[in-house]
Amino acid sequence: MTPFVKRLTLLGSTAALVAGALVPTQLAGAAPASAAAAYEWVALGDSYTAGVIPAAGDTFEVPRDGCERTDRSYPQVIDRDLGSLIELTNVSCGAATIEDITFRAQSPIGRHLPPLSEDPDYPFPPVPPQSEAVTSGTDVVTVGVGGNTLGFAEMLFTCLQLGSESGGVGTPCRDALAASVPERLTKVSEEYGEMLAVLHKKAPHAKVLTVGYPTVIPEDTAKCRYNDWEQFASITQGDLDWLRGDVLEPLNKVIEKSSGDHEASFVDLHDSSRNHSVCDSGKWVEGVFTQFPSEVAFVHPNARGHQNAADHVTSALLNAISPN
Questions:
Q1: How far apart are CA 221 and CA 261, in angstroms?
Q2: CATH code for position 57
Q3: Residue 2: what pLDDT?
Q4: Which residues make beta-bridge pairs with 140?
Q5: Residue 90: partners with Cβ closer than 8 Å, 6 or more residues away
Q6: Mean per-residue pLDDT for 77-88?
């Protein structure tokens, strides 16, 4: 059974249960548009949740708030698929850290990423901590975050610069940054646990689903062409191996462990996207640029990557709200 068919099967069975319990028989086939959704879902997260890049759809906030939520990001895909079964509150925001979800107001950056891109509307006013959207009436919370607390964007910039200076030789980024990685991962672990404790306190009856990161760098980094700006540009092959094995894969493991330690269910996106990295022909994650030099992506999932995330998060979400 394909993920799509499986998702529709789960949706149909769950929706039928909800309709039978909550909608009069004569209206079960066509509930009024004004009827309240059966379950309240709050989506929290960083740019891998929000969408951010044009390859993940169009932004839909008017006026823009700088968080760059796009209409083909996985929360919006799921919202359309599940229809009136859920009511989505999507407060994910590009560049969000764990602290921006837990307690700190965030100043969004939009698509302002100098020297790669300038956003004419930057700077943007602060947005509230994302956890403020979670209430005692929330049924399900999804959260995808951790990469910005780790400092992954900063690491990529450093690797680009050092790889260019080295001419593509060696592991200059690993040599410069490897010693800092254990402390970075410890910071993610500590703050992730604190965040989950806050979410459980705000919504004691909600199911909390944590969403991991997809495969970004392939196991065979020989697929990645040096100085290809639609892949990883000037990052050396050795540094790509290091970023995959010592940074990104451990980040997912930290998130999974913290989830298990704090009564949250981990949604793994890494395995299903293994053959769809930045350097694969059927990529689900864009490189530094989607189209060089006009469209910056800075290593973010495209619409196909978000569809894969939607398939896996939908299954976890329906499982969370289904009667035992």
A1: 33
A2: 3.40.50.1110
A3: 38
A4: 41, 207
A5: 42, 43, 50, 69, 75, 76, 79
A6: 96
